[in-house]
Amino acid sequence: MKKKKNKIYILDVTNRDGVQTSRLGLAKLQKTMINIYLNDMGVSQSEFGFPVTRHETNYLNANLELARIGAIKPMILSGWIRAIKEDVEKAVKMTTVKHLNLSISTSDQMINGKFQGKFGKDDVTRMMTDAVDFAYKMGVEHVVVNAEDASRTDIDYLVKFSRAAKKHGALRIRYCDTLGYDDPFTIYNRVKALASEVKLPIELHCHNDLGMVIACSVAGAKAAIDSGVDAYINTTVNGMGERAGNADLVSVILAIKYSSGFAGKYMLDEKIKLSHAWKIAKYASYAFGVPIPINQPGVGANAFAHESGIHADGALKDRRNYELYDFEELGRGEPEIIETGRQITAGEYSGIKGFRNVYDKLEIKFKDDAEATKILELVRYANVHTQQPLTDDELKFIANHPDIAKKIFTMTP
User: Fold this and answer.
1) Both 13 and 146 in a single domain?
2) Residue partners of 124: CB distance under 8 A and separation at least 6
3) What are 147-159's pLDDT values in tens digits?
4) 284 & 356 share domain
5) How far is 116 from 113, CA to CA, in rounded Å?
6) What is the domain extent for residue 388?
7) 118, 125, 117, 116: which is closest to 153 by C-alpha?
8) What separation in angstroms does the CA of 64 have from each of 49, 69, 409, 412?
9) How far is 233 from 152, CA to CA, in rounded Å?
């Protein structure tokens, strides 16, 4: 029997860590669209929010409903909570979430600096295992344990902590380079030591404080695969996230597919469709209100631009002279049509005539004025909700799933 080859999977955290970007955020409709686009792209899992945060409750349950009816499938939707029993209890009472990531600090710096002497390392391990046990007791199906600040955690303790997590049923360990402290060499050595000892799949959760987030993410994944376990790289669309951000989704995929040490040697989850990269990057840029950097790998305006004579001549003769991969692979190349004449848009003050004109262009028909009026009312709420003109895909989503959309827009303080 041929041995299964370990793979690298993508677990996107845009809707949990990306939305923690200071001064920015996403409306719940926009978070829902990100989940739909990630699913379409073949991403394995989306950490889609905080199950103990009340303003997330309707959004989370609505998205879990989308998963149940197959509108988000097969991607897993997982919630992030602290590794304490109180959070587990709230999460399962407030939502129907079945996949949880339980997080607790493990470094001396954070145990001393955050817990202020209230807890030691043994207490941290006990709190984590109690929370894991309780989660399974409460019907959670899939528990991952996050070691916050793993990169500054004593490796012997990190191994001990991870073994305890495994013993109590954790399916993976998330190695968090919370401050972007690791470099590609240290993270490789540390993850290899951890994975070799514990024999659990490893998630790589890296930050970009020192500008090495992609290199550290793929180096950590290499260490996991070299140790005989699967790797899960945490990403965000366009690298959004706290401080200097997280690992950019598209850059990570490109690094695995095309870098000299990975291409043909390490297996990326075959469900990933790079052709969706352009669409999701553009949508996230619009939703967050943050332009894509001109030099962003793959999706930046200059990613395939050549000006110098030598480069332009070489690219025209054979694109491989100056391009590692094709722009078409990322879903680029189609003309973007921008209306320059009359435009009818749908918003919070739209009337029925203009509204039906917008949906006619999307080739969506309503059976009667009553149905059209119902959707119009939801579109008005959506526009108040996002405070931006709605995209075609947002309008289609509302028309196709009006009852779920209503739940997403609803806040109950």
Assistant:
1) yes
2) 104, 105, 106, 111, 161
3) 999 999 999 999 9
4) no
5) 6
6) 352-409
7) 125
8) 11, 9, 15, 18
9) 19
How many C-beta neighbours within 10 Å does residue 119 have? 17
Pick from 294, 184, 213, 257: nearest CA to 13 = 213
What does the block give as tokens for 205?
């959760």
pLDDT at 192: 98
State mean pLDDT over 317-343. 78
| Domain assignment present for 113 | yes
Number of domains in the chain: 2
Structure tokens belonging to residue 124: 């941290």
CB 71 within 8 A of CB 398: no
Residue 385 is encoded by which pair of tokens? 């909700």
pLDDT band at 350 (very low <50, low <70, confident <90, very high): low
Instruction: Indicate if 239 and 368 belong to the same structural domain.
Output: no
Gyration radius from the chain CA atoms: 23
Buried residues in 227-261 as b, exposed as e (16+ CB within 10 A): bebbbbbbbbbbbbbbeebbbbbbbbbbbbbeeee
Residue 332 main-chain phi, psi, to 5 deg? -95, 165
**80 CB neighbour count, 10 Å cutoff:** 24
CATH number of the domain encompassing residue 78:
3.20.20.70
- Mean predicted lDDT score pLDDT of the chain: 92
